[in-house]
Design goal:
By secondary structure, this protein is mainly α. The protein is about 75% helix and about 0% strand. Helix 4 crosses helix 5 (about 170-185), helix 6 packs parallel to helix 9 (about 230-255) and helix 8 (about 210-225) crosses helix 9 (about 230-255).
């Protein structure tokens, strides 16, 4: 009799995503609504905490201009020109501070909403994503608060020494938030590069080949966002951006799909060799 060959069992298809029932469009909308509601609850709690300490928060914000005005022997009191101006400034500060305090909670719900569509091995990035996003934003804001903003204020006040400054609280707040939040967003560059490289959109080689154009673009952006016209302040904005770009090249090299595939092949070959030795 001819030998009967059992049909080959089909290879088990990988199950990269969690085995969850497919959600309908309305269920996705309901899930999105639920995540938004919980995020807003977190922002409201953060706003309440920030409003409780809003005067101290604004005192910290006001410290750089107070020091600069004192150094130039000028009146250190900011002014307002409308009865509700100071109250509106406090509302804005409390809201932005509340958003920042609630940002880990909001980012968690963003991640929780998109997580069902991710591969299992991609979900391990959730805590590094949350930690690094907040850390980089805080680092950028701190750099702007300690170095960039005081230098810009000193230049602007010193350049206008023949005039008497009457700085309103709203104008100062808008300038402060533009620089501090802008620096915080600039420091998020590695996060952006991480995701673009993870998806294979860009690579470390492409970033390195276009390094000179990146430097040109960085200085153009620095010239746009800096509140002054002097070269020193533009360089203060551009220097961390150049460093972050170099750091982002290393991140792109680590997480690009081609590098991950090579590392997976090496691990597979090593595992196969270990299995072969164990079978001998």
């Amino acid at each position: 009799m001819p030998e009967t060959v059992a049909p080959e069992a089909p290879a088990a298809s990988p199950q990269p995503r969690d085995e969850m029932p497919a959600m309908s469009f309305l269920q996705h909308l309901e899930e999105l609504r639920r995540r938004i509601v919980w995020s807003l609850v977190g922002v409201a709690i953060g706003f309440g905490v920030a409003w409780w300490k809003v005067e101290k928060i604004y005192g910290l914000m006001q410290a750089p201009i107070v020091k600069v005005l004192a150094a130039h022997k000028l009146d250190q009191q900011l002014v307002y020109t409308h009865p509700v101006e100071a109250f509106n400034v406090y509302l804005k500060i409390a809201l932005i501070a509340g958003l920042f305090l609630a940002s880990p909670w909001v980012l968690y719900h963003v991640w929780a909403f998109i997580a069902p569509g991710l591969y299992r091995h991609e979900k391990r990035y959730v805590f590094p994503f949350l930690f690094s996003t907040v850390l980089l934003f805080v680092t950028g804001g701190f750099f702007g608060y300690v170095i960039v903003f005081p230098a810009a204020m000193d230049f602007l006040i010193g350049f206008s020494s023949q005039f008497r400054p009457m700085i309103t609280v709203s104008e100062y707040t808008n300038l402060f938030l533009t620089i501090i939040v802008g620096m915080g967003l600039i420091f998020e560059m590695p996060i952006l590069i991480f995701f673009l490289s993870l998806m294979g959109v860009i690579s470390a080689g492409w970033m390195w080949r276009n390094f000179r154009y990146a430097i040109l673009g960085i200085f153009v952006v620095a010239a746009i966002v800096t509140p002054t016209t002097d070269i020193l302040n533009m360089c203060l904005f551009a220097a961390p951006m150049v460093g972050l770009y170099v750091l982002s090249i290393g991140i792109a090299w680590l997480v690009h799909p081609s590098r991950r595939r090579k590392r997976a092949e090496k691990r597979a070959a090593k595992d196969a060799a270990a299995t072969g030795k164990a079978g001998e």
